From TrEMBL:
Protein name per UniProt: Chromosome 12 SCAF14996, whole genome shotgun sequence
Molecular function GO labels: ATPase activator activity; protein-folding chaperone binding
Residues covered by the J domain: 32-104
Organism whose genome encodes this protein: Tetraodon nigroviridis (Spotted green pufferfish)
Keywords of the record: Chaperone
Length: 177
């Protein structure tokens, strides 16, 4: 792929800027959110690293930085900035991240489509809440918190393993949404 302005080859993937003339580039077709945000393709990801990358990219790509540039470069900065926002929001939350990973594998599942699982989950939450309300000391409440955190960690590992088992190697590209 070449720069839209100076026609030099773009060296980075994804290429946010041309290294030769320093102008913002249009987004690459179908680049995955994981690649945009420089994250490993995994359900369990480092959200602090994700946030740092988001801030870094928005500092570089925010449309306010290009108000005095050519109209085409302004347009590309708006598109790139919006894409970074969407990638960040999708990867930040476990549910949207998992659904996105399934979508990359060709399985589209809408949020909130399994009412049986939702009711089971709601019952479990009610049970935890009841046990928490019955806790007599701060130590008991903290233990319940540790138990819930342990369960969350275990479920995250199982989801990650299941998603990674589905593909080999992880997809580098997907169709844009």
């Amino acid at each position: 792929m070449n720069c839209w302005k100076c026609k030099q080859p773009l060296e980075n993937d994804p290429a946010f800027f041309c290294l030769a003339c320093k102008v913002v580039q249009p987004p690459g077709e179908g680049t995955s959110y994981f690649k945009i945000m420089d994250c490993d393709y995994a359900f369990a990801l480092d959200t602090q690293k994700l946030q740092r990358r988001y801030v870094q990219l928005q500092r570089l790509l925010h449309p306010d930085n290009f108000s005095q540039k050519a109209a085409e470069e302004q347009k590309y900065s708006e598109i790139q900035s919006a894409l970074v926002n969407k990638a960040y929001k999708t990867l930040l939350k476990p549910l949207s991240r998992g659904l996105y990973m399934l979508e990359l594998q060709g399985m589209r599942i809408e949020e909130g489509t399994d009412s049986e699982a939702d009711s089971e989950f709601l019952m479990e939450l009610m049970d935890i809440n009841e046990v928490l309300n019955e806790a007599r000391t701060a130590g008991e409440a903290e233990q319940i918190g540790r138990d819930v955190q342990g369960k969350l960690t275990e479920l995250t590992k199982r989801i990650d393993a299941a998603l990674l088992k589905q593909i080999s190697p992880p997809p580098k590209r997907c169709s844009p949404k």
